[in-house]
Design goal:
388 residues, Methylamine Dehydrogenase, Chain H, alpha+beta, 4-stranded antiparallel β-sheet, 38% strand, disordered N terminus
Length: 388
């Protein structure tokens, strides 16, 4: 190619490449990605276990109770399955499972599973998924128990229990404030014992949701955001409210503050996990780790997205020190709201974004046409002619 042609191409292409690199730098900033991450040392260090494809939002994860390598991952674009601990993932191909998946759970046998998303509620027996009659229009969480076939589902329409893995449902929200549970926790050793957060208060049931009692007198004035049962102490409950951590040693009858407030206030806590005297809290600002029951806090930055909404925490059943955390570019609660309103993924694009994208594509087409025209003039010039 003649030197003059190469110079002309450089003048045209280099600014275009520079514009592309500037426009995409934020999208490829690793600190801005969402996805699924795992810690095997109670939140001290983390590693990515994302599918090979780009994941902008990990919304729910379930670990099989009988095989820690068998995972289900609900994302903002569908449901994936891994049978080797997250090294490889297979996208569940059922068209009905497309779109955001907000909740997943394994039955105690590890074979059957439930998944809930914008398109409905589904049950898997092995690898085959089929739709179920959902008890609520939009299921936001599914919590399995140690009793085969029993699970709780919560959504905007209330709290329900199934004893046959989704074939039938019983409402169990009578007595709960507003009848709506935003958090549900179950005692793995006592299937009848259930805890829930409703209207910012903590409630317990000793009869699988038949009756409820408020257990937050000592938390008066605080809105409870996250709750966890202690894996090592059957009656110990941890809660996070207003950036403070509270502990109860009698299943919520009495509470005491522990540690110091979380830093970077104000923040919203979505979930809390407990390993011995270490607390891990997922918030709208990322994941915080509190040593010595929250006596000191640190924002975990090792291999985790910086300042992104961390919407989930999940223990590995066989190893409580193994914790999964999920991050999303668009917060989970926002995706739930959009799904409830019937808005799809295209609703993320506003008029300015669409207009900017069309203008950029037009620029690409114009620049490409100029380059092609210049090349055509150079390579197909009649011999002996004078360049214009």
């Amino acid at each position: 190619m003649p030197r003059t042609t190469r110079s002309s191409l450089s003048v045209l292409v280099l600014p275009l490449l520079l514009a592309l690199s500037c426009a995409e730098s934020l999208a490829h900033d690793a600190s801005a990605w969402g996805g699924l991450f795992r810690s095997r040392d109670a939140g001290a260090t983390w590693s990515s276990v994302n599918p090979a494809s780009f994941v902008s939002g990990a919304l729910a994860v379930a670990v099989s109770p009988v095989d820690p390598h068998h995972l289900l991952l609900g994302t903002d674009t569908g449901l994936s399955r891994s049978r080797n601990g997250g090294r490889d993932w297979v996208l569940e191909a059922q068209a009905a499972l497309a779109g955001p998946v907000f909740a997943v759970a394994f039955d105690v046998d590890g074979e059957r599973a439930l998944a809930a998303g914008a398109s409905g509620l589904f049950r898997a027996d092995g690898d085959r998924w089929r739709p179920l009659q959902a008890p609520a229009a939009m299921v936001s969480s599914i919590v399995a128990t140690a009793q085969r076939g029993r699970a709780y589902v919560a959504g905007a329409a209330g709290l329900y229990r199934t004893d046959d893995w989704g074939e039938s449902w019983v409402p169990v929200d009578a007595g709960l404030a507003n009848g709506r549970a935003t958090v549900v926790v179950v005692d793995r050793n006592r299937p009848e014992v259930v805890g829930a957060v409703a209207a910012g208060r903590f409630w317990t049931s000793a009869d699988a949701g038949g009756t409820w009692q408020a257990r937050d007198d000592a938390l008066s004035g605080y809105q409870v955001e996250a709750v966890a049962l202690d894996p090592a102490e059957p009656d110990r409950v941890w809660s996070v409210a207003a950036g403070r951590v509270f502990r109860s040693d009698d299943h919520g009858r009495h509470w005491q503050t522990v540690g110091v407030p979380l830093p970077d206030q104000p923040l919203v806590s979505h979930a809390v996990a407990v390993v011995d005297r270490v607390l891990v809290v997922a918030t709208d600002r990322g994941v915080y780790r509190g040593a010595d029951s929250g006596a000191q806090w640190s924002l975990v930055g090792d291999n985790l997205p910086a300042h992104l909404d961390a919407g989930l925490l999940a223990h590995e059943p066989q190893s409580p020190a193994t914790i999964y955390a999920g991050f999303a570019l668009t917060p989970r609660h926002e995706l739930l709201r959009r799904a409830a309103e019937g808005r799809g993924a295209l609703s993320r694009l506003d008029v300015v974004s669409i207009g900017g994208g069309l203008a950029f594509m037009a620029l690409l087409l114009i620049a490409g046409g100029v380059v092609v025209k210049r090349l055509a003039r150079t390579h197909y010039r009649v011999p002996g002619s004078v360049p214009r």
